[in-house]
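Hi R.,

Here's the chain you asked about this morning:
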Amino acid sequence: MAPRDFASNEDGGVALIGAVAMSALLGATALAVDMGSVFLQTRRLQGTADLAALAAARDLDNAQAAALATARANGWDGPLTVTVEKGRYAPDQTVAAKARFQAGGADPDAVRVKISTQTPLYFGHMVSGQSSLAINRQATAARAELASFSIGTRLAALDGGLANALLTGLTGSKVSLSVMDYDALADADVDLFDYMDALKTELNLTAASYDEVLAAKLSTGEALKALSRVLADKGQTSASNAARTLAQAAGDGAPAKLNRLLDPGPYGPQSQVAGGRGAAVTLDALNLSKAVLALSNGARQVELDLGTTVPGVADLKAWLAIGEPPNNAPWMTITASRDVIVRTAQTRLYLEAKVGGSGLLSVAQVKLPILVEAASGAAKLKAMSCANDEATLDVSPGLGTLAIGEIDTDTLDDFKTPLAPAPATIAKAPLFSVSGKASVSLGGQVWQAVRFRQDEVRGRVVKTVSTNDLAKATVSSLLGDLSLKATILGLGLGLGESALTGAVAALLAPVAAPLDDALNSLTALVGVRLGQADVRMNGLRCRDAALVA
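And here is the predicted structure, written out as tokens:
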């Protein structure tokens, strides 16, 4: 056949195209097999590097040997090169992630492990002439010696009526829980990471970091639903039902502001707890619920009509205002830093008790107005000793005042403006009135050391710190300092006023102790107490490590 005829002959074209296509298909298949194998082995090597870094960080004195042994234990048959760099890790969110680990230096607390090996090429050697490809991965792990602590976690004896009245005011809906419900919440511990994982489910944020979850738009009702789900998963049915009741009462109107409440510290950028849980970070469900509700209500006041719940008192009304902690300081944190401070919220409580009169006061209206103002208490980490399995907090109880006097209740929630109680008209009748004023201030704000052992952490021990020069700030002591003045028809009674003022003092004395109980119960329910701060160590993590890069 002539060349010209061959070029124009179309016989066998399909076979030629098929041969070329088959070669391309086989080449693509070979490439896909090799690429898939390399990808799989690289992923496997990354897992080995992660485990080796954790092992090295847990045993810094023998870091190289620990990393190599861990890598070998993961089934690598071929040559394996493991290098370990010791250094310091600074969990500073303002620094690029790659720059947070600095190799060298004294007193290392982190390691960077690099692992190199060869992975076989099944078809690529026909093209490259090489039977294997070098792969390498690295991981950084830091010692996770962390303390988790919270403030304002008073677990007082619960009064169902007072608690329901307070939570009704905070949620804006009727709350009717029994004392057993509150006890169930108080006895139920919730793991912080389980709770944040439940929040992810509530928000459909499957791959979000803990910082992103806490900053997400979330209602108070949704936050409490997530709590109810965690409690149900733990088999704590009564506590779960109580949390669900609070969630329904709270609804979806108010934002939860969880990033102002919880600080996950170095775990914030992570989407899961890497490196294991050396120690659980647990919060009790009652205080978590109260804190969520109080913060969502921040700087708004609640008016409570407690009626005749206090013995000897004909009627009792209370106005409660809860401010936000200064500088958005959290209520709970996980940290190794001595600079992170957790705080309670500023709280103002105004009581107006009406007492039935008798004798000289039988025709008088007797009213005792009491103002309680508690500044923020604060706590920070002072020292940590993993050798002794203990940590020490510095705690500063909030300053406070207790006063008898009248205020404008509309200004109670204005925490930027100091309150100046005016003399109160305590007894008023058509022909006379008795007025008075008294106040008790608490002393200086001084940091006090409070030590927690690991067994106290596990035992959920709450420790109370009082101001060093704490005055006896009770209604009884306040009444003892009460200066009374009586007037009749607008004229001073002079020496003749002693009968009226004596009658008022005698009438008020029996109600002092019951009012103390009511006052203490109300302030305890929001996690504060005048001149005191309650702290709890929620977790103490020692001799463990966490992946940081």
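One quick note: DSSP finds 15 helices and 25 strands in the chain.

Cheers,
M.
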